[in-house]
Amino acid sequence: LDLFHFDLYRLSDVDELIELGFDDYAYGAGVALVEWPEKLEDPQTPGLWINLERIDDDSRQITFSSPTQEFAEIIAKLQTNK
Asked: Phi first, then psi: what are they for 65, rounded to 5°?
């Protein structure tokens, strides 16, 4: 399974994603990992969303969500495997 990483932190214009061929990776075969997804034109892009929140120097809270029901079963399984 191919893994593609996009860090959108320094993205100055959404059109830069077109130049990178983002849609080919995000909707192709494999997994697209997107940091700073709120910089996308549509922050409700379907997918499994993973939010990492820093609690303190040694702790992080991981929250799984999705704007669609497509990943509901996966999220439920992830939440029960603590």
From this structure: -155, 175
Separation CA 8–CA 13 (nearest Å): 10
Contacts of 76 (CB under 8 A, 6+ apart): none
Do residues 55 and 61 lie in contact, with contact meaning Cβ atoms separated by under 8 Å? yes
Q: Bridge partners of 75? A: none
Q: Could you report the per-residue pLDDT of 24-60, keeping only the tens digit for each?
A: 888 888 888 888 888 877 766 778 888 889 999 999 9
Residues 6+ positions from 71 with CB-CB distance below 8 Å:
47, 48, 64
Q: Which two tokens stand for residue 37?
A: 């997804």
Give the pTM: 0.67
Q: For residues 23-52, b (16+ Cβ closer than 10 Å) or e, as one string?
A: eebbeeeeebebeebebbeeeeeebebeee
